[in-house]
Amino acid sequence: MADLKYRRILLKLNGESLGNDNGNGINVNEVDAVASRIKEIHEIGVDVAVIIGGGNLWRGRQGLDFGMDRSTADYMGMLATVMNAMALMDALERQSIFTRVMSAIEMRAIAEPYIRRRAIRHLDKGRIVIFSAGTGNPFFSTDTAAALRATEIDAQVIIKATKVGGVFDSDPKKNPNAKKLNHISYMEVLNRRIEVMDTTAITLCMENNLPILVLDIWDSNTLLRALCGETGGTLISSQ
User: Fold this and answer.
1) Burial class (CB in 10 A: 0-12, 13-18, 19+), 136
2) Distance of CA 117 to CAs 128, 140, 147, Å?
3) Pairing outcome for strands 180-181 and 99-103
4) pLDDT above 50 for 1
5) pLDDT for 188-227, tens place per residue?
6) Within 13 A of 153's CA, how many CA atoms are on the CB side?
7) pLDDT digits over 168-184, tens only?
8) Cβ-count burial of 171 within 10 angstroms (0-12 exposed, 13-18 middle, 19+ buried)?
9) Which region holds residue 213: left if phi is over 0, alpha if psi is between -120 and 50, else beta?
10) In the 3-class helix/strand/coil scheme, how is 159-205 assigned residue by residue?
11) What gap in Å lies between CA 164 and CA 57, rounded to an integer?
């Protein structure tokens, strides 16, 4: 492989990436496929931290539609991310990759409490670190948690995994002529209300000059090429 452009990354996955064809539940085959992608980049010397959403198991909006308290609905969503983190941990360890799950909500029987210096130490020792339970606070998404944790561990980039290959000038599912953008600035994302990550996450990345690379990790070798600085996906940055 060529020299790596990014040596420490935070990989942001949607919960639906672990689900069945309809995006619900946990499909062991899909989890194994994601673990294999992570193993590929780990084995070339990249420090990898991961955050997974919980939308395949629970979405807070489901509760809100039935009058549930927002904080309760959000905490349930955080617990869903812990379940996804444990599933990915198991898949990685079955592929002989040392992994640690850290939770922003204390649950010592199944995950380590999140401590920044301990997370960095795990990464320095070559372990995959999976952050779960978001920020530990309601009203904040896993997108925001990804931006926060990436900043804390000195990640060089957030890789936002999608199945459409990047950011487009219109919805590619609705417009077959949609054009993929190779680069877009933080301010353009905010001003055009492009829903790649939420506003808080984009703003946090902009304030800390943390680039976001949006790409399809399921496309063979795309992730490996991107880590070496080759063209692929969409880069969101200040320049």
Assistant:
1) middle
2) 15, 23, 17
3) unpaired
4) no
5) 999 998 889 999 999 999 999 999 999 988 876 788 888 8
6) 34
7) 888 787 888 888 889 99
8) exposed
9) beta
10) EEECCCCCEECCCCCCCCCCCEECEEEHHHHHHCCCCCCCHHHHHHH
11) 22
In the chain, the amino acid numbered 59 is: R
At 166, list the tokens.
């990047």
Alpha helices in 95-172 (DSSP H): 116-124, 142-152
Q: Thinking of the domain 8-219, which architecture would CATH place it in?
A: 3-Layer(aba) Sandwich (3.40)
Q: How far is CA 122 from CA 99, 128, 153, 208, 233, in A?
A: 9, 7, 11, 23, 29
Average pLDDT, the chain: 92
